[in-house]
Specification:
With 425 residues, the chain is of the alpha+beta class. 45% of the residues lie in helices and 8% in strands.
Length: 425
């Protein structure tokens, strides 16, 4: 007799119980017929809404036919793992990091549990086979989650349940022939809060996301320089973006869910990253990066990407302070960190160029809103010399030009001159 089988419990209910025992919050069963969203997905790719994520346009037939991922597959045990939707942010960095990325890498956390679940199913039902997925293969996971009754695809394209949308999805495909769960009704109604709140208009219409406008794409997947308009639109977001979830009525405080993720803290912010702030991040060297972000999903953006994003967010903070007549001391701290960052040039130069662009934006703002003496105080002589040397020693045409431009802008503030030729460096 299969492990644990007995009484009047259905096989489907038993497998879902096992999923919860392995550490997931909820589970359901989905069938594996071809996607009902095939035309919409193909049109999404053809429009280029997947941005530079070219892998989403590959293996489309497999992606639209989930049964193709395991020979003989008939069903999927779909799981949801809730992550902390709110918490105490210890520094200015973490309020701008998508909540799912605060703790350990969810791929690792979930895959360990999924494989244990798959092994348990195979042991209990000899001859059956399984294959586990968590955001790593050609599967339309949200559609499977919807079929399994874990949620309903919402206007922001997230899977939304009555417990909110702060949860991650995983699947165990199986050759067992299982009955599907009961699907949820539409939960969005006439609400358009997510569309209205998106700062880049990435939600071009209900149920459609254009990744070319999405902050999450730019801060995580994009590997080179950010367009200027995107840098300004980032606001405080250094990695990912939760705005379309934050404004959703289903995610309000009146619908809290204390999940196993919060109790076990796998997906909560660990102590060794808790104090990291934006100034430290923009100046982080590789050794510290490797140690700090070990087992973190934030490694996806790579060191240069994180430093690039932090430079843009710090620039936004400094510009806001200058426009509001805020703290000169904080602006000085930001400028000092950016000068240090331009001196830490990598092979790609992405982080250094971002810091240079941030320094240019701050210099231009200072020139327009401060008296010359006040502007010069923001970049004392030692920092000016470090910036000059960084520009002088820059490698790569794009990086050199960016740093020379930054030096020229600050030289204008220092001398009152209208320009300074690059060859004078």
């Amino acid at each position: 007799m299969p492990e644990g089988v007995g009484g009047r419990r259905s096989r489907e209910g038993l497998l879902c119980e096992w999923a919860v025992e392995e550490g997931f919050d909820r589970a359901g069963i989905a069938t594996l017929e071809a996607s009902e969203y095939g035309d919409e997905f193909s049109a999404w790719v053809e429009r280029g809404d997947n941005a530079s994520m070219e892998w989403l346009g590959r293996r489309v037939e497999e992606r639209l036919n989930p049964a193709s991922r395991l020979e003989g597959a008939k069903s999927a045990v779909c799981v949801a793992l809730h992550y902390p939707a709110r918490g105490q942010d210890e520094s200015d960095l973490w309020s701008g990091v998508a909540r799912y990325a605060h703790g350990d890498d969810y791929h690792d956390v979930m895959m360990r549990r999924l494989r244990r679940l798959g092994d348990r199913i195979e042991r209990s039902y000899p001859g059956s086979r399984t294959r586990s997925y968590v955001d790593t293969g050609p599967l339309l996971e949200r559609e499977l989650g919807q079929r399994a009754g874990l949620g309903r695809i919402a206007k922001n394209t997230m899977l939304l349940s009555r417990s909110g949308s702060y949860f991650l999805l995983g699947e165990v495909l199986t050759t067992l022939d299982l009955s599907p769960g009961e699907t949820l009704p539409d939960l969005c109604g006439n609400c358009t809060r997510c569309l209205d709140a998106c700062p880049t208009d990435a939600l071009t219409q209900p149920y459609r996301l254009d990744a070319r406008r999405c902050i999450s794409f730019w801060t995580i997947e994009h590997r080179t320089d950010l367009p200027e308009e995107i840098e300004r639109d980032l606001g405080e977001w250094t990695f990912g973006c939760d705005i379309c979830q934050q404004v959703c009525p289903w995610n309000e405080e009146r619908n809290p869910r204390r999940s196993q993720a919060e109790r076990a803290s796998d997906l909560a912010l660990p102590e060794h990253r808790r104090g990291l702030d934006l100034v430290e991040l923009v100046t982080l060297d590789r050794d510290c990066y490797v140690e700090t972000f070990r087992r973190s999903a934030m490694k996806r953006a790579k060191l240069d990407g994180l430093r690039r994003n932090a430079a843009a967010v710090l620039a936004n903070e400094a510009l806001a302070l200058l426009q509001e007549g805020g703290s000169d001391e904080r602006v000085m701290v930001i400028v000092s960190a950016l000068v240090e960052s331009v001196g830490q040039q990598s092979e790609s130069g992405v982080g250094a160029r971002a810091a240079a662009r941030a320094l240019i934006a701050i210099a231009e703002s200072l020139a327009s809103c401060c008296d010359p003496a006040g502007a010069r105080n923001v970049l004392p002589p030692l920092l000016r010399e470090r910036l000059r040397r960084a520009a002088q020693n820059a490698s790569g045409t794009g990086t050199q030009q960016a740093l020379e431009s930054a030096w020229a802008c600050w030289s204008v503030l220092e001398s009152g001159a209208q320009s300074q030729p690059a060859e004078d460096l």
